[in-house]
Design goal:
Elements lengths: L2 H18 L4 H17 L2 H9 L3 H9 L11 H14 L2 H15 L6 H14 L26 H29 L4
Helix pairs in contact: 1-2, 1-8, 2-5, 2-7, 3-4
C-alpha cells in the first residue's frame, strides 16, 4: 500500500478506537507516524543522495514513483541499504522483538506500535512478488507472500473509496452520537 494510505488507515482506526477507548492526540500522531515510517526508512539512503549528490533529487523522485521493474539504477551500496531497510521495517520478527523490548520496558503494550503492525499486515497482502514483497520473517528468510500489487489502478481506487466511506461512516457515527446526547426540548 502507498505511504499516504497507510497513514490514513491508521488515522481511521485511531478515530474508531477512540470511540471505545480514549486516545490522546500524541498517541494518535505517533501511531500514524509509525504507520508511515517503514516505507520512509528505506528512502533514507536516497534522501542522502538527494541532499548531497548532483542529480540525487531526480533519482529519489524516480525511485519513489517507479513501477515494478522500472526502478532507477542505484549504486550497489544504496541498493543494499534500501533493500535491507525495507526488509527490517517490514519484518514481523523485527517488530516482535521491538514490541517485546518496549513492553518489558514500559510494562504495558505501547499503542503507537499498532501503526507499525498494521503497516506490516497490510503490506503482506498488498505487495506482489514483483515489487517489494514484505519479508515477514526477515532475517530468517526473505520469503514474502505474493499479494496483489498495491499500485494496481482498480485496487488504488477501491482503497481510497473505502477510506472515504470509512471516514464518512465515522463522521456519521459522531453526529448520531452527538444528537443522542443533546438535551431534548
Amino acid at each position: 500500500m502507498d505511504i499516504l494510505a497507510h497513514g490514513l488507515w491508521v488515522g481511521v482506526g485511531a478515530a474508531w478506537l477512540h470511540r471505545h477507548r480514549r486516545l490522546d492526540r500524541r498517541t494518535t500522531v505517533l501511531a500514524v507516524g509509525m504507520a508511515v515510517v517503514p516505507d520512509l526508512a528505506q528512502l533514507l539512503p536516497l534522501v542522502y543522495l538527494a541532499l548531497f549528490t548532483p542529480g540525487g533529487w531526480s533519482v529519489l523522485l524516480a525511485y519513489a514513483n517507479a513501477l515494478p521493474g522500472y526502478e532507477p539504477a542505484l549504486s550497489p551500496v544504496v541498493t543494499e541499504l534500501t533493500h535491507h531497510l525495507h526488509c527490517v521495517m517490514h519484518s514481523a520478527l523485527v517488530a516482535g522483538v521491538v514490541t517485546t523490548v518496549i513492553w518489558i520496558g514500559l510494562k504495558r503494550f505501547w499503542i503507537p506500535l499498532l501503526g507499525w503492525w498494521s503497516h506490516i499486515l497490510i503490506d503482506v497482502f498488498t505487495h506482489s512478488a514483483d515489487f517489494y514483497p514484505s519479508p515477514v520473517f526477515y532475517p530468517v528468510t526473505y520469503w514474502g507472500f505474493d499479494g496483489l500489487a498495491w499500485n494496481t489502478p482498480w485496487f488504488m481506487i477501491l482503497n481510497y473509496v473505502s477510506l472515504a466511506l470509512a471516514g464518512l461512516g465515522l463522521v456519521w457515527l459522531r453526529r448520531r452520537q452527538a444528537r443522542a446526547c443533546a438535551p431534548r426540548r
